[in-house]
TrEMBL record:
It comes from the Bacteria. This is DNA repair protein RecO. GO terms for biological process: DNA recombination; double-strand break repair. Involved in DNA repair and RecF pathway recombination.
Length: 233
């Protein structure tokens, strides 16, 4: 096969010298595969097969679990640390949990690439993560509809909460105001004051897909935030 641009989403040891990997690929979406021999000391593939590093890969096999062939670097890994690293781990965990195997998601791949490029900059993190979440929801036909359950327009003066069953918004006193929701549907996600509402909308839309099992990366984010709030000795 022609080498595919790819990123490693998750890796765990398999037998003595191999690994089970989850990859995000340009044309085939999420691919599960065995990477044979990559755990051997000195393996060239081991050095290349790292999170946040752009790769070229090939694989073989007709079942859901493939066998990796070529594993080749196509550039340096994104330099992530601290909160930026946790954001990258969150993106990887989200795609691993929600993407069906071999569902073509070229737009998600493009947004993931843009996310890795932006995560080293703190000011850009919230916006690119929301864009990636929305692209993922669209790929799964689960994106929020910025209207009422019957398609009715939202009142800029009203307040609304997201209803998962209809993927739409219903009136609710503690919800988001209609003006803010209209800004979000217009794509103006970077306007002042939109970070919180945007996060609330995408989180509510993803909740039914994620189920009751929490995201580990989200828990790590909470722990980091708690440490930052703790008084210094």
């Amino acid at each position: 096969m022609t080498p595919q641009p790819a990123y490693l989403l998750h890796k765990r040891p398999y037998r003595e010298t191999s690994a089970l990997v989850e990859l995000l690929t340009l044309d085939h979406g999420r691919v599960r595969a065995v990477a044979r021999g990559v755990q051997r000391p000195g393996s060239r593939a081991r050095a290349s097969l790292q999170p946040f590093a752009p790769l070229h890969v090939t694989w073989s096999g007709s079942g859901e679990l493939k066998r990796l062939g070529l594993i080749e670097s196509r550039g340096p890994a994104a330099m992530l640390a601290g909160e930026g690293l946790l954001c990258g781990l969150y993106a990887n965990e989200l795609l691993t949990r929600l993407l069906p195997v071999e569902l073509p998601v070229t737009e998600v791949f493009a947004f993931y690439t843009a996310t890795l490029e932006a995560l080293p900059r703190p000011v850009a993190r919230a916006g690119v993560l929301r864009r990636l979440e929305l692209a993922l929801l669209e790929a799964l036909d689960a994106e929020p509809r910025f209207c009422g359950p019957e398609g009715q327009a939202l009142d800029p003066q009203g307040r609304y909460v997201f209803e998962p069953a209809s993927r739409a918004f219903v009136p609710g006193e503690r919800g988001i105001d209609g003006r803010t929701l209209k800004l979000l549907v217009a794509g103006d996600w970077r306007a002042p004051g939109l970070a919180g509402p945007a996060k609330a909308v995408t989180r509510a839309a993803m909740a039914p897909l994620l189920g009751s099992r929490p995201l580990r990366s989200r828990e790590w984010m909470h722990q980091l935030a708690a440490r930052r709030r703790a008084p210094q000795a």
